[in-house]
Amino acid sequence: MRRMRAAVLTLGMLAAANCVLLAALLELPPAATAAYAVLSAVLTLYCCLRPTAGDYPAPVLRRLDGGSALLAMGLRVETVSAVFTALAGIFYMPARFGAGTLIGSCAVVLAATGLLLAAGLVRAFASSAQMGVRWRVALILLWWVPLANIALFARIRAIARDEYRFETARWELDHARAENAVCRTKYPILLVHGVFFRDSRFFNYWGRVPAELIRNGAAVFYGEQQSAASVEDSAKELAARIRAVAEQSGTGKVNIIAHSKGGLDARLAISRLGAAPYAASLTTINTPHRGCLFAEYLLGKTSQKFQQGLADTYNAALKKLGDANPDFLAAVRDLTKSACDALNEKAPDMPGVLYESVGSKVRRARSGQFPLNVSYPLVRHFDGENDGLVAVEAAKWGTAFTLLTPKGRRGISHGDVIDLNRENIPGFDVREFYVQLVRSLKERGY
Hints:
By secondary structure, the chain is an alpha/beta fold. The chain has helices at about 1-15, 20-25, 30-50, 60-90, 95, 100-125, 130-140, 150-175, 210-215, 230-250, 260-270, 295-300, 305-320, 330-335, 335-345, 370-385, 390-395, 430-445; strands spanning about 190, 220, 255-260, 280-285, 355-360, 400-405. β3, α11 and β4 (about 280-285) form a beta-alpha-beta unit.
């Protein structure tokens, strides 16, 4: 029924867009031609403004589906109309109508299809999380360029269509297992961010992951440590936070999921700063447990003046973002191989705490967004296979290690693994990965 309705509307829009040419070919009288034109205008406005029919779990999915459908209709009507106009001009113009009719018909076709495409683009722009800045800028710059704009509209339509299908499938999966609360663990989840980021209400470091975990029954808290500090200073803040969440939740312990430097902060908090009684498990995500030779090399090769200047710039920015006493250089130095080797000596795994780890890798520089696309080849030279910042070997820790290696040439970057860019990656559903990670903790009694 849905496809039939779309086909009928597309045929109707073909007739509406080509009303001038069809009226001339059919030799309609003036009154009939005027009525035809009015009906065509009404149908065009109806197609552009009508709400998308059907039941949708969220308004954003309705807009995505509607935008994709309008873009598809506009492209089809424009393509078929171009062929029809060309054939009519070649075979019928001398006998049935003049050049003025042909030009007028082209103007009406462009107006009708332009309205359809504009309505579709507005819905896609307002709803798509996957379109990204690149495609939005390209559209602003190239919407008026013939052929290039058609290719761009087709690409945006494909993005909106794929996003609608992906998000609908996610909703259906969550709806089907809602009663099971697969992420309702014995102990709450404490998400610990990495270096140079903070836990913010306005931009969640973990992207769409926390909402997905909560939707599936998890109790989620955040580490709330400063963004740039030494591992020791961050660990002190985190130890207090671990204890506070354990007591606040009434469960006595927490399951910690920590990304990047946050994993080092969590290990030191558990091993040396009194958080062990309150930690049920620690799962580190792309944490440089064995450090970064790349970072050590850069610190050794750059001058103290350059390092301090860079640090002053970052520290000033981080203070404005909420850090009380940021220390850029201390944070970077604690990610070097020598610093991590020293940490590993003084922060052994504690009995009674489950330690597990996750790592990922990208397969080529352009797989990661800036600055990971720049750092990837350098890290590969010094540390081997990596996610743009952290080597696969450095990320291994605990009793179990999971390497994320989806099919294809892209891979999973340091930012992808926490959904930093809110991107749907073919072959890797980051939200489902965390659902299954937390589900595994639940099934093992954590």
